[in-house]
């Protein structure tokens, strides 16, 4: 089992947006961002870039946690991230969690969802392909 307190989940960018670790869903972190001026898009709506940042943070967090659990130290580099905006984010907290679809030696594929009130009604989803660069031993 991964020591959840030892896994670095949040980047400086995520902290600047106000993203924080909410809880764990099995091995995957659930991240949260409260509504504030830092994530405001058009009046009364969450900015698309903030939603994308939330999705990306959840994806990298899940991958870091799984790699840590496996005893692997690596740098993560994005290959591509495709975000689908499904509905407008409102003036309320938003959450995101990722699922690792495939984890190989050099690449990983993840799916991520963001929601507000109801996890079954996502406001956005993303597919991430990430390069894994193992640390030299």
The overall average pLDDT, rounded, is: 88
Tally of helical runs: 2
CATH superfamily: Hotdog Thioesterase
Q: What is the approximate shape?
A: elongated
State the CATH class: Alpha Beta
As laid out across the biggest beta sheet, the strand order is 1-2-4-5-6-3
Structural class: alpha+beta
How would you describe what is shown here?
It contains 2 helices and 6 strands. The model has no long low-confidence stretch (mean pLDDT 88). Strands 1-2-4-5-6-3 form a 6-stranded antiparallel beta sheet. The chain has a single domain (4-134), classed as Hotdog Thioesterase (Thiol Ester Dehydrase, Chain A, Roll). It starts with 11 loop residues before the first helix and ends with a strand. It is α+β, with helices and mostly antiparallel strands and 137 residues long. Helices cover 20% and strands 40% of the residues. It is elongated, with a radius of gyration of 15 Å.
Q: What would you say about this model in short?
A:
This protein is an alpha+beta fold and 137 residues long. It has helices spanning 12-17, 48-69; strands at 19-25, 28-33, 74-85, 94-103, 107-115, 124-134. The protein is elongated and about 45 Å long.
Which key phrases capture this entry?
137 residues, 6 strands, single chain, Thiol Ester Dehydrase, Chain A, six-stranded antiparallel β-sheet, alpha+beta
Architecture blueprint of SSEs:
Blueprint: H1 12-17, E1 19-25, E2 28-33, H2 48-69, E3 74-85, E4 94-103, E5 107-115, E6 124-134
Antiparallel strand pairs: 1-2, 2-4, 3-6, 4-5, 5-6
